[in-house]
Amino acid sequence: MSGLNALLRRELSLAFGGGGGPLLAVAFYACLTTLLPLAAGRNPQMLGMLGPSVAWLAIALASLLSLDRMFERDFEDGALDLLALGPLPLELVAAVKALAQFAAVNAPLAVAAPIAAIALGAAPALAPMVFFCALVGGLAFAFVGGLGAALAIGSRRRGLLVAVVVLPLLSPPVIFGAAALDAARDGTSPVTAITLLCAYAAAAVALSPVGMAAAIRNALD
Fold first, then answer.
1. pLDDT averaged over consecutive 10-residue blocks of the chain (221 residues)?
2. Which element (helix H / strand E) includes 153?
3. pTM to 2 decimals?
4. What is the DSSP letter of 121?
5. 131-155: buried (b, 16+ CB within 10 Å) or exposed (e) per residue?
């Protein structure tokens, strides 16, 4: 248990300290949501309809920023070899790294999402739903993104490779989250979409560490 705690503290320190931590992702997210009114025009009704969904989609894009460094730093300095030979299962190590990524990037984005949605014209009553969808979806983004980052270990163009691998896998949670927000905005039940979103997040948390560990072993071999 002490080894797991030490690993979690280490990964949180690296996630918050390396690559700008949450500041870079939140700043990128703010830029995306600020540019939308310039592209959509001055129609406040259109902005009010698009606001929650665009704020949700922007989270998926902002979460890609620091994924390429999730495993690469440890691969370059040899720490990944030590982690693979350590007492903790490599699947657990990968899961801890994904959780640190979620805490440093996706959780702050989830906090910023309701603010961005309201700024874009969404009703303040939608703020809890936006936050919940962003938080659950952010967990899925972190674990699915970790899988892409593990597959790109050692690649020269790992940023591009991570985007190519991860973006298609981000489509289902983006669709489910947007559907939940649209249903809540229209006054219909968002339960089905939320259930699908939570199921996808649960599957990502359960299955992605296995794929990450396999990709890490392949890269180290």
1. 77 71 80 74 66 76 79 80 84 90 89 84 84 91 89 74 82 88 85 94 94 88 75
2. none
3. 0.88
4. T
5. bbbbbbbbbbbbbbbbbbbbbbbee
